[in-house]
Structures are given as C-alpha cells and as structure tokens.
Design a protein that fits this description.
Layout (H helix, E strand, L loop, with lengths): L9 H9 L7 H11 L4 E4 L6 H13 L9 E4 L3 H14 L7 E4 L6 H8 L4 E4 L1 H9 L10 E4 L2 H6 L3 H9 L6 E6 L4 H10 L4 E4 L3 H6 L2 E6 L5 H9 L7 E5 L2 H13 L4 E4 L5 H13 L4 E5 H4 L9 E4 L6 H8 L10 E6 L4 H11 L4 E2 L7 H6 L30
Helix pairs in contact: 2-3, 3-4, 6-8, 15-16
The structure holds adenosine monophosphate (AMP).
Adenosine monophosphate binds next to helix 3.
C-alpha cells in the first residue's frame, strides 16, 4: 500500500513525501480511509506506530472541505511534550495548507496562549487542565469543534484528568467526529470511549508483545548501590550513542544526573519539577547530540518523539509492567534497531517477573562487573555466572566493543 492509494489530497501527499515517508504504517493504512469517510474511531496503539499522522492527515483533509476560521479541531494530550509534538505534526503535515494551530499547556504563563487564541486558530492541541482554565475564563469556546481527538487516554486517566476531560467533552457540540487513542484498554478506558464515540471503527495495531519483540533486551542483576557505577561503565561503550535513562522518581533522576555529570558525562534530566524552558532545552540538547544521555521519569518522557535513541536504560524497573513497554518503545522507532537494558535489584524482582509475563519473553541476563548473586538468586533465574578471566576475577564487559549478543 502507498500513500497515493489512501486518496490523500496533493498538499498532504507532498508533505508526507517531504517527511520521507513512502509507505503508510499499519495504523495509517487501517485508520485513514475510515476517518476520511467521517467515522468515529477507537485506536489501540502506542506511540511509535505512526498514530499521530494517522489522525492528523485525515483531519487536515476533512478540514479543507470548507474554510471558515474557527476552532474546528481540538486534540487533548496528557503532557506538554506530547501536545507540542502533535503541534509539530500539524505544522509538518499541514505545511502546504493554510490552517493555524496553537498548543496550550500549563506550567507557563497563559499570556502568549491567550494572544494566539485571540488572533484566531483552526486547531488547538491542549492538555486538559489549562484548556479548562481558559474555557472558564471565556477565552476559548468549543462551539465550532467538528473534530475531536483524545490521545493517550489510558495515561490521561492515570494522571487523574478524568474530571477535566468529562467537563471538556460536555462542552463539545453533539455533531462532531471523535477519535480516541489508547495504548491499553482497561474497563475505565473503555467506559470513557463508550461515552465519547458513536459507532466507532476499532483499529488495533501491534499488540504490545509484538513491538517489544523487535527490541533487544537485557537485564543486569545489580545491587541498588552499584547501579550508578554500572550505568557509567555502560555509557563508556561507544555504541551507546543516544541513551534515554528512566528512573521512578524525580529525586533519583536528579541524583543520576549529578553522578554522571561529576564523571564528565553530559546529561540532562526531564521531569515534572523542571520548568518548561528547562525541559525544552534538555530535549533540544538531546536531539542535537549535545548531550548523549537524557534521564527521565515515566510521565515526563511520555510520547517523546526522538529518533535514533540507541538504548533505553531502566535504571529502576517500573512497578507497572505496561510502563516498561512504553519506556522501551522509545527506541527501535519506525523500524530502527534498538536495545533496552534494565537494572534489577533484589527488591525489584517482582516487577521483572510481571514484565516478563506481560511481554511473554524471558529477558536475557547480562554479565557485568557488579554482579550480585543476591539480586539474581532472588528471581530464581537460570542465568549463567559472569565469565572469569585467568586471574579469577570477574571480567567487565567494558573492553568488548562489539555489541553484546542477545538470546530471544
Ligand atoms: P507516532 O506513533 O505518531 O509518535 O510516530 C512515530 C514515528 O514514526 C515518528 O517519528 C514519525 O515521524 C514516524 N512516522 C510516522 N509515519 C511514518 C511513515 N509512514 N513512514 C515512516 N515513518 C513514519
């Protein structure tokens, strides 16, 4: 299937070609025809599947059917980063069309956002809290919305946005096309979808385990106290070119950054306590290669769209196994190769077990210098012991410059 076969109008075909896309991803191929036909849609897909273009392209096309300047498309996203990225997608795919969009999120002054709205926009991409504030101040009205997208619904609910979302949905016109995306489908998520959508088409792509199978995965059993040293050792290997490190807490993210910085590894952190300016700067530094390592918490990293992340490192394992899938999905994007390493201490063994159950894979155990029998035995793994050199000491993997081999 090619983009031509999707019956997209020329300005969109040209924009897609400029992005270098030749073939629609499965979710694009499945969703675009129904969306062009005006149907509601429920998409079960995670970031990295091309879902943003799957909704942005048909919405832009449908918007060209008439040209009044009014807020006709509203997209809700859980985080500022994701909202900004969706805004960038509207800009890239709509570059040969005349629509204006703006992104609205909290944590920054509302002045510039109010100004952008007052000048007239066709598309708003927003996080729920700030949008609701502006609606309550009478600075934005949803009466002309024809196309509504709720992105990453599961994460929205995790983040406690349900009441804001319901209030926003209550102010939308009855006659509209609604799209709903979620990586997972809990009963609450499906109840929300049911309230929002009318006779939706259901599109499901890449069940979590299939995406995960493309990513090389390894686990290091290591005591908590040795994790920083192990991370530093790994980062000295040349093939770890762009590394996203996940911690569970903001505090730990900051500690990892100061440890690495004190060892001359350029690192930034992004998490909820950072100002918007600092987050944007950190992402830019990482994208441009100024920093090789970005340390993030789950929520801040949600939906980060950076190509060529060579490695994801779970400095701490997430307590929700689904988060593991989201985290490692930051690498191996759009068909690229990717590797995910996880550090597992004795107290994280249950998390590892849950993850392996979810992904239906046994993650390969990696040998290393800070090998911990305690951590490893705790999971009852059959991992081989670390290789020993002739002097009988554990051999570090550091001198090995070739990529480690993985068992699937
Ligand atoms: P998303 O799931 O929307 O976050 O998209 C994941 C990544 O895939 C983004 O970096 C997109 O630029 C890229 N992408 C989207 N559609 C295509 C396509 N048809 N061909 C190649 N890359 C794509």
């Amino acid at each position: 299937m090619s983009f031509q076969q999707l019956n997209l109008i020329e300005p969109l075909q040209n924009a897609v070609a400029q992005q270098g896309y030749t073939t629609p991803t499965p979710i694009q191929a499945k969703a675009i025809p129904d969306l062009l036909a005006g149907k509601d849609l429920i998409g079960i897909a995670q970031t990295g599947t091309g879902k943003t273009a799957a909704f942005v392209l048909p919405i832009l096309q449908r918007m060209t059917e008439k040209y009044p300047r009014a807020l006709r498309t509203l997209v809700l996203a859980p985080t500022r980063e994701l909202a900004a990225q969706i805004g960038d997608s509207f800009a890239s795919y709509g570059k040969f069309l005349k629509f204006k969009h703006t992104v609205i999120f909290g944590g920054v002054g509302q002045g510039p956002q109010v100004f952008a709205l007052s000048r007239g926009v066709d598309i708003v991409i927003a996080t729920p809290g700030r949008l609701l504030d502006l609606m309550n101040q009478g600075r934005v009205s949803l009466r002309d919305v024809e196309f509504f997208v709720l992105d990453e619904a599961d994460r929205m609910l995790d983040m406690g946005f349900i009441h804001d979302i319901k209030k926003i949905i209550g102010r939308l016109p009855q006659k509209r096309q609604s799209l709903f995306f979620s990586a997972t489908m809990s009963p609450q998520v499906s109840q929300l979808a049911h309230q929002l959508l009318r006779n939706p088409v259901r599109v499901e792509v890449a069940p979590q385990a299939t995406t995960v199978e493309r990513i090389k995965q390894g686990v290091f059993f290591v005591d908590s106290a040795a994790k920083e040293k192990l991370l530093l050792e790994l980062l000295l290997q040349k093939h770890l070119t762009r590394v996203l490190v996940f911690t569970r807490t903001k505090h730990r993210a900051n500690k990892v950054v100061s440890y690495l910085s004190s060892h001359n590894v350029r690192t930034d952190a992004i998490h909820g306590n950072k100002s918007q300016g600092a987050r944007t700067q950190a992402l830019q530094n990482f994208k441009s290669g100024r920093t090789k390592v970005l340390v993030a918490t789950d929520i801040a990293a949600r939906g980060i769209d950076i190509d060529d992340i060579s490695h994801v490192i779970n400095f701490e394992l997430p307590n929700e196994p689904e988060s593991y899938v989201h985290r490692i999905g930051r690498t191996a994007r759009a068909g690229a190769e990717g590797t995910a390493y996880s550090f597992c201490s004795a107290d994280e063994r249950d998390f590892l077990r849950d993850i392996e159950r979810l992904i239906r894979l046994k993650i390969e155990v990696m040998p290393h210098l800070y090998h911990s029998n305690q951590a490893q035995n705790a999971v009852g793994s059959v991992a081989r012991p670390p290789p020993r050199n002739q002097r009988g000491r554990s051999r570090s993997f550091r001198p090995r410059q070739d990529k480690p081999r993985f068992r699937r």
